[in-house]
What we know:
Layout (H helix, E strand, L loop, with lengths): L1 H9 L6 H6 L9 H15 L22 H5 L10 E6 L3 H14 L7 H17 L2 E2 L6 E6 L4 E6 L2 E9 L33 H13 L3 E6 L8 E14 L8 H11 L4 E9 L2 H8 L4 E7 L5 H10 L3 E6 L12 E11 L6 E6 L5 H6 L5 E2 L2 H5 L5 E9 L4
Parallel strand pairs: 1-2, 1-3, 7-14
Antiparallel strand pairs: 3-4, 5-7, 5-8, 6-7, 9-12, 9-14, 10-11, 10-13, 11-12
Amino acid sequence: MILKKSKDILSEYILCDHCLGRQFGKISISTNKRRGEVIRNFLKHTYPDTPNINYQSPCYLCENIFERTENIIDQINPDFQFNSFHVGTKIPKDILKKEEMLKDKFGLDYQEGIKQELNRELGKKIGIFLRKEFKREKEDITIIVHPYGSKIEYIINPIFIYGKYNKLIRGIPQTRWLCTKCKGRGCSRCNRTGKMYDESVEELVSELFLKEAQGTDSSFHGAGREDIDVLMLGTGRPFVLEIKSPKIRELNLKKLEEQVNMINEGKVKISDLRFVEKELVETIKNVHMRKIYRAEIDVCLSDNEKQKIEEFFNDKEIYQETPNRVVHRRADKTRIRKVYKVRTSKENCTSLEIYCDGGLYIKELISGDEGRTNPSIAELLGKNVKCVVLDVISIEEKV
């Protein structure tokens, strides 16, 4: 079958060994070039009168591109750090059309495309040339070769840095908050900054990393977020910082941690930095970690009220509709979260410590939010109660 189809193909078209072998590339384990040589040799003995049996350029399919790979590789000269790479190629449509035509005309069910062959051949040679690792996934960069146009492009994949942050002052959001009026363009409301707030945890943390890595942009992925007026204390909130298109990948994380903490002393502190894979971003964004909050309320609790709260909110499910204060920017739905324990203070009649699921709105747990949170402390006590100061003092480790 292989010899007969090869004879029919060569009777009409001139093919190099690479392209002849590729027409049956999925049948046996061998290089396409070697397969093409073997087929051509068998044809010489079996069908010696086959036209084009002795290869003479140019190849109808590839136009001798496999003979020019060394010239292509000489153009590769990246000016950034990387340890691993993948290769992609851009093949002209007329080349691909000829290949598809040949496949249909001769019923070539086991043909391997020129793109796959070039990617593999260039990958092996570039790896030797650059002394870097060729990978098919989780590579540092992708080298896009235009073999018929003498053009090289580089896609630099992001780096991801895990850490934890403490927010030590109130009044700053976790991430950059665009002005709601101008959407970041700059207007009189935001004093031409394009932002609702001058600073954010994201900006205070990422600026130095972005500069050091010479990246084009960054994204800050937090394991949940605290309100602007809430402190993040304890061991900190997990986050992943994504640096896009970094020219420098080998960062001294310990040194950067010290520098960020020194520059932002009294505002933001980071710790436990390490490089991670992209997959952790989804884990960070979707995991619900249990948390401990410290809340100050606007009423002084009696001993009887303290006991009532502690006994009632013990492994208690809470049904929360999206709070009134955020329903304009979040989906209006009912969430079910659990409060595991509430501790009151013997010394302070306005202080509560609440151990609960992540994603529970604590201010609304206290106030009831006009009945949108049920049950609530206000409902239990039968009086108006509001949270006036709130801090996150612990987040359970799950990453």
